[in-house]
Amino acid sequence: MNQRPPARRHSSFRGRIGIAREDITPPLGIYSRNWGAAKHDTADSIHRPLMLTALTIASSSGGAPLVLIDADLGWWRPLDLFHRFQNRLLNELSIESSRFIFALSHTHAAAPLMEVDSSLPGSELLGPWMEHVFQATVSAVGKALANADEAILDWHTGKCGLASDRDFQDPDPNADRVICGFNPDAAADDTLLIGRITTASGTVRATLVNYACHPTTLAWENTSISPDYIGAMRETMEGATGATAFFLQGMSGDVAPRQQYVGDVEVADRHGRQLGFAALATLNDMEPAGSLLCFDEVIESGAPLAVWRHRPREIPSELGAIEVSADLQLKNWPTADELEQQRLSCDDRALEERLRRQQEIRRSLGDGSSYPLPVHAWRIGDAILIGCAGEAYSQLQKQLRSCFPETAVICMNLINGSVGYLPPAELYDVDVYPVWQTPFDRGCLERVSVTMANAIKELQA
Question: Less Cβ crowding at N or C end of the chain, within 10 Å?
């Protein structure tokens, strides 16, 4: 029986791809408190600018594009603020919701995406700045569509050791809880997925770095606006390739840098260089665009030598986009009004901030017993991009990739909104921050996993 000769290939796509970037750095003096332990309320310096980068992907034969936004932003407070932002964009750009993804890097050192609150210093600058983010998005998408050209998008898997497990048993024998920080006894998912966009002439036009790691290097002592480690990663990649670098935050609910919660921006830059160098190593391990490495023949030369050669391959051009939902049970939290009363009567600064965020989540999801969490899935050639607004634990991306081993699966958190953690069921028996922060009850991650796997199967059918 004839067997197909072995070959090494990437998940790929051929079509029209556009790229554009805008600066979305907020002004100094803007409200920027993202940590309960912070003593400051406003930003007094800029470590690195915040960027918004647009990617448009369309078939060579025409049709509606897929539009992906990569933004150096933290999270939406509350979720319905994003829905209003999204609806304006979809109307302005004439895009279907299933074909649009607004992805957050999740930096914890940006101004928060929230409504103006006159009780907060620097809050009056939030409204104009968020309007600037909106206009920058419209501009970037327009430019990306205008400069779109024929290109090949290939994906390849590597590794990076920046991320560590961050569920650490409190060493205090009297404290029966898990705290948020480096756990030296657990292995973290080190998977790094690199996308490479190459022009017809063979020039690298852009790279995409999909990696799961909380950008929490900089914390309560930091008073600068910063993209955290993503800024130096981008600088490292772009300096070496001359091509635009995207960052796509992976499913990072349980992973973060080993050294974090600092005020020293050089630590963030060091982390970014670590990820950038790992991404460059993976990039240089890729086969030439439009080719696969095939076993060709045996040459007898003392030893029998296996000769592999590059051959052209047919690059798929299929595109698909679906938007489905996972119906998640909500915890029996107090109502939004009750949480607001607790906040107003609280005189502890850190607890007051926690109650503010809990109230925002409750108000966004309503006072019902369940919430239909949207899941977005794209087929890009023979690769899959999938994600949701939750902060899923990294075991979800490991499960999805193991279920579809022949496919590059780009897994993302915090797309099209932000709503809370998705921890595994067994953690609901533990006193741990992601469990008491999330509005979702036990089983949420497992339900999302089934929904995502079914979406991938539907796109591949």
Answer: N
